[in-house]
Amino acid sequence: MNKFSYDHRNPRIAAPARLERIRRLNDALRTQHRGGSVVVTDGVAALGFEAVQAISTAIAGFDAFDTGNDPYGERDFGSIEFEGKKVFFKIDYYDRSLRLHSPDPADPKVTARVMTVMLANEY
Questions:
Q1: Which residues is 38 bridged to in the sheet?
Q2: Pairing state of beta strands 36-40 and 77-82?
Q3: Ramachandran bin of 32, using left for φ above 0, alpha for ψ from -120 to 50, beta for the remaining angles
Q4: CA separation for the pair 19, 6 (Å, rounded)
Q5: What InterPro entries does the annotation carry (predicted)?
Q6: pLDDT in tens, 62-111
Q7: Which one of 31, 91, 118, 122 is CB 3.0 to 4.6 Å from 76, fit for a cystine?
Q8: How much is the pTM?
């Protein structure tokens, strides 16, 4: 089985079309804050409004996805440097009630995406 073929035992391994849909949805949230919610942690918020804006811009431009930070190919995690601090972003998939995991991250009708932006030491 190749890396991206569907395996019903592991729904995070997706068929190519499904994976591409998840990537597009994650990219829309990461780059345009569309299709989900963005949450910043206390540590990031404490840096101030202008810093949060600069971090958001840097995350939107992030494209250094590789097998180390993106093992499933979903573009759901990354890290940037901001003023000497490592900042992570992480996209999680919840059901619409935000209580459980999404039954299908490729389907925005049943998925609430949440991107959390945090300092590395808050992970």
A1: 115
A2: unpaired
A3: alpha
A4: 10
A5: DUF3768
A6: 999 999 999 999 999 999 999 999 999 999 999 999 999 999 999 999 99
A7: 91
A8: 0.87
